[in-house]
């Protein structure tokens, strides 16, 4: 396999049994091992830290749906112009929503999408947090509460957005390439 980034950091060989099992689960569920995981596999401790936080934020119980969390990932990645995350998480939005148009709208400009008040407020907050986090005030959190988010949900919105702001910078800084399979999924 070609390196998933422009950096020459080879994957640990052989992979530890737990990592190999995790990659096998990815192949079974997704049909691929995401390149972001392969890229982190030069250092198993870093891979485990990355996957642990990702799984906690994106897979565990939350007042946010899986789709809403993926929508946050796409809006953050759109603002940051992160090719890897736009392709990978745009595919996830298409899959979870069953709506290829929504996936494309969020990638290009979420403001043109037909969103309910809750989603619009969530993504407006996400955009402000990404573009100018220092401008966040209580009134912004109150606007989320007014459409039904509780304080735990707001914590999750902030943490998902912050995680993708970090990963966008890692992906862009290393020239991480998305898996080719993502481009044609759920179209």
Low-confidence stretches: none
The CATH architecture designation of the largest domain is Up-down Bundle
Q: How many domains would you count in the coordinates?
A: 2
**Looking at this structure, what is the CATH superfamily of the largest domain?**
AhpD-like
Q: Would you tell me the overall average pLDDT?
A: 95
Which class of the largest domain in CATH terms?
Answer: Mainly Alpha
Strand content: under 5%
| Topology order in helix (H) and strand (E) letters | HHHHHHHHH
Radius of gyration, taken over Cα atoms and rounded to an integer in Å: 17 Å
Distance between the termini: 26 Å
Number of strands: 0
Which term fits the overall shape? Answer: globular
Structure characterization notes:
The protein contains nine helices and no strands. The chain has helices at residues 17-30, 35-40, 44-59, 66-80, 83-97, 100-109, 117-132, 138-146, 151-174. Helix 5 packs antiparallel against helix 6. The protein folds into two domains: 17-59, AhpD-like (Single alpha-helices involved in coiled-coils or other helix-helix interfaces, Up-down Bundle); 66-184, AhpD-like, CATH 1.20.1290. The longest helix is centred in the last third of the chain and has 24 residues, at 151-174. With 187 residues, the chain is mainly α.
Question: Main traits of this protein?
Answer:
187 residues; mainly alpha; Single alpha-helices involved in coiled-coils or other helix-helix interfaces; AhpD-like; 2 domains; 9 helices; 67% helix; globular
